[in-house]
Design a protein that fits this description.
Elements: E1 6-11, H1 17-22, E2 28-32, H2 46-60, E3 64-68, H3 95-101, H4 103-116, E4 121-126, H5 132-152, E5 160-166, H6 169-173, H7 175-178, E6 184-187, H8 189-196, H9 215-231, E7 234-237, H10 248-254, E8 258-261, H11 266-274, H12 278-289, H13 294-304
Parallel strand pairs: 1-2, 1-8, 2-3, 3-4, 4-5, 5-6, 6-7, 7-8
Helix pairs in contact: 2-4, 4-5, 10-12
The protein binds phosphoenolpyruvate and magnesium ion (MG).
Length: 307
């Protein structure tokens, strides 16, 4: 029997939860919290964050909710935080790198998350991890935030899972080690593609090289799923590819556990996933990964995997 796959929605604010539920989402696979920090003049307070996270958890009523810690920098600037001008912002001071250098800001968010965990099924996720040291430090800060929140509220009994995004090739290559430290992975294909093929995802002059079918990208995804399974943790995907009808059968064949996408893609994805069987697809995935180019992979999928 096929294992039930979870099909979840991506959101940028609590208002978007309804749309995910209306489309039958099994959970929230990515809440991009940076939007809470953008389009304003000062940082959101811990209380404001606690209310936003808690409201999403409450509305989802026990269904899983993956909340990603602050992922700013790169293409997402926050004017009042005074980011430096950089030659290569996507390779620069962003996401977990920024948070680990700005501990009090980060811990404020982590305390809000720990407190909100009382309202539902929370999974806390760190973005842009490129190595073990970053993960360990982020987990230490989370443990401190938990202690602090519990000291303030003797009734609080926080429970949550901890995971990381696999969106750098380094993280995908180290998935075996990283998996020992977390409860789950979620593959961020938007960034994983740009870092794997060295193509800035915002640069229109080289957009044709930003190739989701590139065998290198798909091999890293397969490796991540395999290493997660080997370590006994679940592996999801929250980048755009999770809702791509051509690639969904490939990811089912690889054994991906959770697919998270914009609400509008959920229905079609569910229908495709329910028609796909890992047993049937796994040998085809092996064949496709032995091909030499994205063009060949795409053609193989169109001829062999589209029903
Ligand atoms: C990703 O990189 O795939 C992802 C989901 O994160 P974002 O698009 O917010 O960078
Ligand atoms: Mg990303």
């Amino acid at each position: 029997m096929e294992i039930e796959k979870e099909i979840a929605g991506n959101i940028g604010s609590p208002d978007e939860v309804d749309l995910v539920l209306e489309n039958g989402g099994d959970g929230i696979g990515l809440y991009r919290t940076e939007f809470l920090y953008m389009d304003r003049n000062e940082l959101p307070t811990e209380q404001e964050q606690f209310e936003a996270y808690g409201s999403v958890l409450e509305k989802m009523n026990g269904k899983p909710v993956v909340i990603r810690t602050l992922d700013i920098g790169g293409d997402k600037n926050v004017d009042y935080l005074d980011f430096p001008d950089e030659m290569n912002p996507f390779l620069g001071y962003r996401a977990i790198r920024y948070c680990l250098e700005n501990e009090s800001l980060f811990k404020e968010q982590l305390r809000a998350l720990v407190r909100a965990s009382a309202y539902g099924n929370l999974k806390i996720m760190f973005p842009m991890i490129s190595g073990m040291d970053e993960l360990i430090r982020a987990k230490e800060l989370l443990a401190e935030a938990k202690r602090e929140a519990m000291e303030k509220d003797a009734e609080l009994q926080p429970t949550y899972e901890v995971g990381l995004m696999i969106e750098t090739p380094a993280a995908a290559m180290m998935a075996d080690q990283l998996a020992k430290q977390v409860d789950f992975f979620s593959i961020g294909t938007n960034d994983l593609i740009q870092y794997t093929v060295a193509v800035d995802r915002m640069n229109e002059h080289i957009a044709q090289l930003y190739d989701p079918f590139h065998p290198a990208v798909l091999r890293l995804i397969k490796r991540t799923i395999e290493q997660g399974a080997k370590a006994g943790i679940w592996v999801g995907m929250c980048g755009e590819l999770a809702g791509d009808p051509k690639l969904i059968p490939v990811f089912v064949g690889m054994g991906l556990d959770e697919f998270s996408m914009s609400a509008g893609s959920i229905l079609e994805a569910r229908s495709l996933i329910s028609k796909s069987s890992m047993e049937e697809l796994a040998p085809k995935v092996d064949e496709l990964l032995a091909l030499g180019s994205g063009k060949e992979v795409k053609q193989y999928i169109e001829e062999n995997l589209m029903k």
